[in-house]
Write a structure and sequence with these properties.
The protein is mainly alpha-helical and 138 residues long. It is built from six helices and no strands.
């Protein structure tokens, strides 16, 4: 997880032209915990926030579920923020799995979901090709 998040950090800084030096973290040969993953996702979201082009519709959060699966108050607050902004699925393994670690496949899915939302909130749609994305009217 550490190697992947180092690459994500570097890519976000280059693509979004965010100031600062990429953070090169070193990891241990063990499975990353949910709290570590949530903290990294929250750090990257905060890093990219000055480049957001708007705020997506707020997502519903199942707070009792998050509270029951995440003992640390800081992790619960970060996870709530990530879910509300749509960076983490509300009932995804990262948010709701009883285990404190994820499989590599689950981490990959969570990272893909996160990166998709990051691309969504940092780039403006071209109205010629995506007129339905510019309004909440259905």
């Amino acid at each position: 997880m550490t190697q992947v998040m180092n690459r994500v950090d570097k890519a976000v800084r280059v693509v979004l032209k965010v100031d600062g030096t990429p953070t090169a973290r070193t990891g241990q040969a063990r499975a990353a915990t949910r709290a570590e993953m949530v903290a990294e996702f929250d750090r990257i979201m905060t890093l990219a926030r000055p480049r957001f082009r708007g705020r997506p519709i707020r997502q519903a959060v199942d707070q009792p579920l998050i509270d029951s699966r995440n003992p640390a108050p800081e992790t619960r607050a970060q996870l709530k923020r990530l879910i509300e902004w749509g960076f983490v699925g509300p009932v995804s393994p990262l948010a709701a799995d009883p285990s404190q670690t994820l499989t590599p496949q689950q981490f990959g899915d969570a990272l893909g979901y996160f990166m998709t939302r990051l691309a969504d909130v940092t780039h403006t749609y071209d109205p010629r090709f995506s007129p339905a994305n510019l309004s909440n009217d259905d």
